[in-house]
Amino acid sequence: MGHINVIDAIKERSSKRKFHARPVEKEVLNKILEAGNMTPSGANMQPWTVYAVSNKAVLDSVGERVITHIKDGGDVDQFIQYYPVKWIKPYKLRRITTGVGLYDKLGVERRDKERRAELWYDNFRWFGAQTVLFVFVDETLIDGSQGALIDCGAYMQTIMLAAQEYGIDSCPQGSTTEYGRIIAKELKAPENLALLYSIVLGHEDDEAIQNSYQPDREAIEELVTFID
Ligand SMILES: Cc1cc2nc3c(=O)[nH]c(=O)nc-3n(C[C@H](O)[C@H](O)[C@H](O)COP(=O)(O)O)c2cc1C
Question: Which residue has a Cα nearest atom 1 of ligand 1?
């Protein structure tokens, strides 16, 4: 496996949603986590507390617990609200375009609620992967301040880019944010830890159609104000 340069890693990473059922090799996982630890953070706080779960029984039970909760009509049960409460322009359109693009690729009709629900549940089946990082933060670090969330976001990207170096694919998950309290309990995490998100890591099924999906990005002129 040759080295990948940073720009290639950035461009080649995309969220994968179907994986082969095998965990990330321990040695590789450690290297990815070592790289993750080099993420810069304010005051070198290193606020991420990570559960790296490759135990199938644990992943199954966490996922089943959430799916059962949702099927029983349970509400979200979270530490932080990830998505906006109000979806305004242009974000709403971006969200819809991205979602529709994925469903179209998979040939899922917008009205096909059952299929869409299954795709949502796939998040909690870890898209078939067998290694998931659950990233927590100490609740006192986000009590009246948000900086640790910025740091933990940067951590997410470091992990996913480092994974590229070792041929490991990923999917970041805000779906788990929404059921963070249920997951934290199932993982027997201490009371002070708030689950922020998870990252699925593994070997993508490169024949899966959903894995060829890479939603477009805006032109930088839309997002950047140049002051020369
Ligand atoms: C914080 C965060 C949470 C996300 N949550 C989910 C998720 O729960 N399920 C999912 O399938 N994709 C999730 N995604 C993936 C995004 O949909 C994806 O990054 C975006 O559409 C851009 O596509 P790309 O990652 O393939 O470049 C998440 C991404 C981020 C950064």
Answer: 174
